[in-house]
Each structure stands twice: as C-alpha cells, then as structure tokens.
Amino acid sequence: MVLILKRKQARALFQKLTELEVKLERANLADLVRLLQNPVRLIFLNFLAGLARGFGIAIGLTIIAGLFLVILTRLASLNLPVIGKYIADLVRIVNQQLRLYS
Asked: Which domain does 101 fall in, by range?
C-alpha cells in the first residue's frame, strides 16, 4: 500500500517537474541570463528599442496633429459664432509657422 502511494507521489512530482520545465523553456530564462551577462549587447538592444519607440512617437504625434488641424480647419469653415474666430486664428498661426520653417 505504501509503495503504491509513493509511486503516485513520484508520478505527480515528475508531472509537476515536467510542467515547470516547459514553463521555463517558454520564458527563455537561459537567453535572459546570457543577455544579462553581456552588458554591451544589452545596452545596444536598449538603444535600438529607444530609437524605435521615439520614431513611433514622432510619427504617431505627426499623424494625430495633422488630423487635429484638419478637423479644426473644417470647424473654422463652418463659421461657428463663438469658436470659429479662435479656431481660425489658431489655424492661421500654425500655417504661418509652417511657412516660416519650410
């Protein structure tokens, strides 16, 4: 009877160890340790990630600002009594700045 229980416990333990092995392989723990042991490569990868993040922010902000200006221009053309003057002034200022820098 005790032998049967020990075999069941051994099988359960083996199954848990197999699950742990699979999870560790998925986590790429060995690759992470190798990366941490090579600080030059880690710095280079972080630099590239920062460049990509900054480029994405710049492109995204440009698109959003362009859409915002298009919406403001259309609102200004509607001649809304209160907001229309302020929007027209804002669009005029932006257009003047664009002419100065281009």
From this structure: 57-102
